[in-house]
Amino acid sequence: MVTAGIILAAGKGTRMRSSLPKPLHKVAGVALVGHAVRIMRAAGVDNINVVVSSELADSDELRETLLPRVRVSVQQEQLGTADALAAARSAVEDADTIVVAPADMILVTDRIVREMIKVHTESQSLATVLGAMVDDASGLGRIELNSSGRPSAIFEEHEASTELLNSKLINTAWYCFDNRWVWSALSSVQPADTGEVYLPRIIAIAATVDSAQLIISDDNETHLGVNDRVQLARVEAVVRQRTNEAHMRNGVTIHDPAVTYIDIDVEIGADTTIGQSTHIGTRSVIGSNVVIGPNTQIFSSRIGDRAIIDGARVIDSVVGAGVSVGTNSLIRDGSELMQGSRIGNLAEIKNSVIGSGSRVSHFSYVGDATLGRNVNIGAGTITCNYDGVDKHPTIIEDDALIGSSTMLIAPVTIGKAARTGAGSVVRTDVAAGDTVAGVPAKSIKSK
Ligand code: UD1
Ligand code: CA
Questions:
Q1: Domain containing 209: what range?
Q2: pTM exceeds 0.85
């Protein structure tokens, strides 16, 4: 039994009032269309095709968003969901069953999608729809049932009878179809008054041969879609809550989940604690027994076991085991803080390696630098790495002691166990073991 997935993501998304196509709007760090792909994958569907507009097909953002092995089909003109599905026909020729989803219903769980596929294949139906019972059905298509409780048709709100409008059973727009049947059925779907061809109308065609099935989601958030930015925020809140709860169940302490933002695809080890107003961005990996926050942001970074990140920002960097990073510090652009190093308050570390046991304790800028082991950087020290045209490296070898407010004019090397006096402006390399001071700094060792 071969199953293929098709995600419809070519709609205009007019209600978002955005120049960014709706499928690329992010929820918890991942674009909507990426969420739909993930749900399908998690439900066991590997061959996935996304139908996009020609504008979206050409965008770099789409390529960045999609996981590998996702194929793209183009719907030339936005003529409705049935027309969008038709655009993917040639991409799924080998499949027996196709699973179809919109890009904007991302609270559907992989568990219920798996269940839908099972119900569909076991009942050998031509079409199966995932429905949900909701308190507020406004804006959604309503599923009409026949006397045996199976779907006979789906009507959009603007075309539904008053009786059906009172029904709380809505169409999530996730479906399974028999791949040998669906394409000819699609071609007989008649356009609505709006001129669009509606995919839900295919249910009535399957029902004429008594082969439409229904599965109802048991999750009361399934029906929340993203059509405007109010709904975007609502859906994001649910995703965050689910993510936080999953981490807490895995042994992570989150002091105040309501103000803790952990994106999709973040790994966190057991016994790590997270303080309030903290954001951990997608693809970050946090070790165990780490203390993070309050007021901390970590994006695309790895944090080792037992590290402490207290009110700092860490972006595209690696923080080793047992490292501490203090308040208002910024670690960025491929920096690596080796095991047991310490960054204090108000320090900025950019594209630099801070060796094991080294300390940058107070308001310093360290950019394009490589520090050895047990280096101490005094308060207010700056690597002057930019000459107005190019960036230059600074190398500080093991056990060096840099006096407060030293200006290191790169490119420059400070040798092993060398020292600089407070307020030195170092323009030339300092030999191992030497001590320099002054402006420009000169050796004072022999005096
Ligand atoms: C659709 C369903 C509705 C269901 C609801 C659930 C139709 C006609 N109605 O309504 O029964 O309750 O979803 O969320 O299908 N798309 C294209 N090409 C198009 C038009 C849309 O690819 O020409 C894509 C959109 O990008 C979107 C999906 O299809 O991902 C659904 O379109 P949307 O306009 O959001 O449909 P709804 O009005 O929400
Ligand atoms: Ca929608």
A1: 3-217
A2: yes
